[in-house]
Amino acid sequence: LSQRLPTSNPRTADRAALEWRHRGSPDQPPCLRALAAAAAAAGWLAPGFLAPGTQSTATAGPALRRQLSLTSSGDAAVSPPAAAATTPAGMQVGSAIASMSCAGLLVAAAAGVQRQRRGTSFQTAAAESGTAAEAPPKPKKVRITAFDSVRFFLIAYIVCGHFIGFAKATPFAFKAITQINVVVGAFFALSGYVAAYTTTENAEREPSAKLLSTPKPLWILQRVFGYYPLHILICLLFAPMFLYPDVVFNGWPTAIWHGVLALTMTQAWFPMHAEVWNAPTWFLSALTFATAVLPFALPVLARQTKPQLRRTFGLLFLIGLVPKLGYCYDHKAWGLLEGAMAPRAMPNLAIFNTQRFNPFYATIEVLLGAAACRLVMLDGAEGEEKAPKVSALSTALPIAGMIGVILLRATGVLQLSDMLTRALIFMPLFLSFLMSAHRASVLPKVTDPICKILSSKLLVTLGNLAFPIFIVHGPLGQLFYKKIIATKLFGGPLHTVLGPWFFYAYLAIVVVAAWVVQKTFLMNKSVGSFSKDIVGKLAAKLEARRFFVQVQGMAMPSAVGANFITPSVGKAQRSTLSV
């Protein structure tokens, strides 16, 4: 804790309290509970301090209560004897906290708990300066509802792009709507942007206390299980449809292997088989890897200044761009419109699919989104420039640019590969839009017309359906249009049996099915409770294994194999374990 909580942080007490209470919960390793018991014996804390739901400041032990006082305004104060002569009462954390000794940490934690329970303001001063400094009020976070609507427009474009070929669209419309390889990068960037917004502090170069205090396996699993249960459900419901053509064309061993890839969400690592079973869920496979990286990357990004973030952004941009340049250079693919091409027409489908599906490249785009978000969140922070003025053009111009690029490529005016268009033009424009919409949405009064439209109730409701639409549109499309399936069920693909108009009926069916899934499964409390229990058990096992490995790492070589710990640890470790 002393390494995580530098004394320069004006809210050290709050953060110490959050860390202490989380780490001391009964389902965590017993080391901190033992330390709390020792502190209680010494009089620093009452034995019930770690008990869940404690609401009274009486949990401070007698020795600690002698050092804590409440000012007339109700603020928690810490007055160690060593600093009492030179420190105004109730205004300064003493040398015990400055050194972050064990006793100092306990004082900070108890003071932070008092502050959180009483809802009062807390003031801290650096021990070496002796002057009080009031912590600036932290800007509140608001839900940026415009981002929900953005998800709907993105998924609507991708759904249409996957099946527009069955609607007998004009050549121009077909080329304009099939550029999904370009647009899908926006989903990764938006995921990183939202992750940074929810896990780092506004106007501060700090990650949130919750991000730091939550064990990384638990943090990752909580997010993965936000989409994994529905993915599993759809895979199981449509398993006969997925298996039948796989068995017919490839045999049972390959079909089972493809099922393993789909169920474990590892298919994105196999570029020629990334679209097995529910084809669009390669995105979840890539996103899962990026999610596993985020708890390690977000604290680093959170502590960077704006100049550092811009350098990080530039480095990530180049890392993502260079492989795409290599693909285009080696295969003379500079001007290809890959989304409108048949797979057999590709110069090298395996290399192209690697650019599309590989989780490493997806992680780059997720981190680009996170870095862009941090640039906005640091607006007006200490030592940083203020937020630039935003206007209607701040959001309108990037949108016009994205639409214009797609239309220019569809007409043949702009001949640039999908991969280069995505990296060089579309992604920078999309991130610029997100940053402008973010700044416009957190103003006291939202005046941006585009943000107002995107925040309308109808569009936000549709945006909430984006994920179930994404999950169900692939299986329903296979059901209606995949020849081997539709012929068995309907006598042929429905665009030939009923006509091209069925494409619009298909879109309506997808939306209705997504709404049903949303109401009956995603919003089901029993499903949520079950998922939460599974996450808790998996995280506990991973944490226990990690603790076991750490204990083994402390061990020194020993010829005695019967005893696991005591004979194999050094003298200092045995002394620590005895205590």
Main sheet attributes: strand count, strand direction, barrel closure: 2 strands, antiparallel
Mean pLDDT: 79
The shape is: globular
Q: Count all strands and give the number.
A: 2
**Poorly predicted runs:** 1-10, 22-26, 41-47, 49-133, 555-579
Helix content: 55-70%
Distance between the termini: 19 Å
| Category from helices, strands and their pairing | mainly alpha
Strand order of the largest sheet: 1-2
Tally of DSSP helical segments: 27
- Please report which band the strand proportion falls in: under 5%, 5-15%, 15-25%, 25-35%, 35-45% or over 45%: under 5%
Order of helices and strands: HHHEEHHHHHHHHHHHHHHHHHHHHHHHH
> Rg to the nearest angstrom?
28 Å
Description:
It is built from 27 helices and 2 strands. Helices cover 63% and strands 1% of the residues. It has 579 residues and is mostly helical. The model is unreliable at 1-10, 22-26, 41-47, 49-133 and 555-579 (pLDDT under 50). The protein has helices at 12-23, 31-41, 62-65, 95-99, 102-118, 146-163, 171-177, 180-199, 209-213, 216-224, 228-237, 239-250, 252-264, 282-302, 306-331, 349-357, 359-377, 392-411, 418-441, 449-454, 457-464, 466-481, 483-490, 494-497, 502-522, 525-554, 571-578; strands at 68-70, 76-78. Helix 1 crosses helix 5, helix 7 (171-177) crosses helix 18 (392-411) and helix 22 packs across helix 23. It has a two-stranded antiparallel ribbon with strand order 1-2.
